[in-house]
Amino acid sequence: MEVKNGTAGYMQLLLSFGEVQKNILRLIQKSATEKGVSIPQYSILMTLFRCSGMTQKAIAEKTFLPKSTLSQAVDGLAKEGYVTRRPMECDRREIRLELSGTGLALAEQLHLQEGGLHQAFKAASSHLTNSQIEELVAAHKNISSYLSEAEMEGAVK
């Protein structure tokens, strides 16, 4: 594809990100459905799997889930015994969420699930060299950094 003024290049990149995002969401939906959880619940489980003992507010910041969606998803996870809620010592109004033993087991199953997101990424990345992975991660960090700065400034440069 011919590149004119960088337009085709940035569009190819944007479309590529969109294609990857679509596939990620498809894999998440498949995994969540197979394990009987919603997509928001999957996001919460995997967030707590990486960093257990977070407040609901911190999870909202990481997952970008709306407050009402997050509350309903957490209620469902707590009802099923996958998460526990405990008041924070320093501020009793803040609730700390942790994976229960059952929740940890489910998160591990999701992480190791054949055909799931993590295993698919592991397989896909096995076709890349370490150098390619490092370059790709660096490029993603640059793009993410620029987009975050542009959002903070309120306009794209």
Structural class: mainly alpha
Could you give the order of the helices and strands? Answer: HHEHHEEHHH
Number of continuous helical runs = 7
- How many strand elements? 3
Percentage of β-strand residues: 5-15%
Binned, the helix content reads 55-70%
Calculate Rg over CA atoms: 19 Å
Major β-sheet, in short?
3 strands, antiparallel
Question: What strand line-up does the widest sheet have?
Answer: 1-3-2
Oligomer: single chain
Protein architecture, described:
The protein is mainly alpha-helical and about 160 residues long. Helix content is about 70%, strand content about 10%. It has seven helices and three strands. A three-stranded antiparallel beta sheet has the order 1-3-2. The model has no long low-confidence stretch (mean pLDDT about 90).
Summarize the structure.
16% of the residues are buried.
Please specify the SSE layout and strand pairing.
Layout (H helix, E strand, L loop, with lengths): L6 H29 L3 H12 L3 E2 H8 L3 H13 L3 E5 L7 E5 L1 H12 L4 H9 L4 H24 L4
Antiparallel strand pairs: 1-3, 2-3
Helix pairs in contact: 2-5
Considering the chains and any ligands shown, give keywords for the structure.
157 residues; mainly alpha; three-stranded antiparallel sheet; 3 strands
